């Protein structure tokens, strides 16, 4: 009788990786010995109900660490102390100032041991996706404090969601060792592909309904998500947000009154 499941090496590697980085195997959708490789374990789903969806207007999109959170003033976002980058360069959207200038942004860093799927922080309709080819610099602390315009030069995918407060942007930022950025609702758009890398803008008609807490996509290793919120969000919720530093996907972003 031949063993057709994951190899002994894969099972031992996953078990050792989980032990080394204190990953709770009980949260995974499947038993660790059902994943054929560490790569597949990286993008594991969680058991239903492990990350209940918060009741506020917005929730956090990923298990991660919040490294920056501030107003988008003068079309500029903060990368690290002393380093900024331009909203227009980052989004490659000619209408970005109308949507997000004067709004609020948050940077979420996913380390390689985090749950790697990204969920919608809001209820709304997906209207547009922009794929922007670029470099694959690491997005660790050294890079964010030393590489100018890091998030604007790295590969990224912007998912735009129309809400009752205006457009919300979810930006997946690629990095070294990120196998792919994959969107759950449109797998034709993928990051880090072989062949020519060209800018792509896709407008959805009809729009794609999305619910707070539903899966948007995944990284095949750790990376960064940057959230863009419109001025109406900032006016309503600034000073009333749960900003970590470490947060769980689907946990309330907005503090209960």
TrEMBL record:
Q: Which domain of life is it from?
A: Bacteria
Gene Ontology MF terms in the entry:
phosphatidylserine decarboxylase activity
The entry's keywords: Decarboxylase, Lipid biosynthesis, Lipid metabolism, Lyase, Phospholipid biosynthesis, Phospholipid metabolism, Pyruvate, Zymogen
- Top-rank EC class of the record's enzyme: lyase
Pathway of action:
Lipid metabolism; Phospholipid metabolism; phosphatidylethanolamine biosynthesis
Q: What is this protein called?
A: phosphatidylserine decarboxylase
Q: Which Pfam families match?
A: PS_Dcarbxylase
An example GO biological process term is:
phosphatidylethanolamine biosynthetic process
Q: What is its EC number?
A: 4.1.1.65
Q: Which organism is it from?
A: Bdellovibrio bacteriovorus str. Tiberius
The root-end lineage is: Bacteria, Pseudomonadati, Bdellovibrionota, Bdellovibrionia, Bdellovibrionales
Name the cofactor(s).
Answer: pyruvate
